[in-house]
Amino acid sequence: MKICLTTTTCIILLASFAVIGCEDMSPQSTGVLAGVTSGALAGGVAKAAGASNATAVAVGLGTGAAVGALAYVVAKHEATERQRRIAEERARLAYERMSAERRAQLRQQRYMAVSTVQEQHNQGASSVMIYDTQSRQLISNQVYDVKNPPKDGQVQKYDTYSAQYVGG
Questions:
Q1: Taking the complete model, does pTM exceed 0.85, yes or no?
Q2: Residues contacting 76, CB < 8 A, separation 6+
Q3: Cα 132 vs. chain centroid, distance in angstroms?
Q4: Percentage of the chain exceeding pLDDT 70
Q5: Strands 137-138 and 126-132, how do they pair?
Q6: CA 148, 150, 154, 159 torsion: positive or negative?
Q7: Reduced to 3 states, what is the DSSP secondary structure of residue 37?
C-alpha cells in the first residue's frame, strides 16, 4: 500500500515539475498548480509515513494553503529615494497609530509590509516595502511590485520574510 502511494506521489511531483516549467502558462495557473501539487505531495508523504487519512488530508490542505499565501510578486527592484521616504513615513505612522494589542502581535510577527508610491517603472497593482518592527526601519531598499494589493492584516511571504500588511 505504501509503495503504491509513494510511487503515485513521485509521479505527481515529476509531472508538476514538467508542467510548472511551461512558459505559456499564466502566473495564476502556475500558482494554483504549485499549491495543489504541494498539498498533494505533502499529504502523500504524510500518509506514506504512517499518518491516518484525516491527518494526511490536514497536512495536505495546510501545505497547499501555505503555498497559496505567498504574495505574487511581479517584480522586485531598488526603491527610489521617494519610495523609500514614503514607505518609512507610512510604516512609522501606521505603527504609532495602532493599538497596543496589534503592536504586540506585530512584534511577534516582526515584519510588516507597507505600501509605497508607484513609479513609472513599477509593474504591479501595488508596491510594498518591508519594515522591521524591532529595529524600526526598512529591512532593505527593495520594492516588491505585487499583482494584487494585499488586504489589511494579511500575512504574506516576500522572499524569506513573512510580513503582515498594514496598508499605508
A1: no
A2: 142, 143, 144, 145, 159
A3: 17
A4: 63
A5: antiparallel
A6: positive
A7: helix
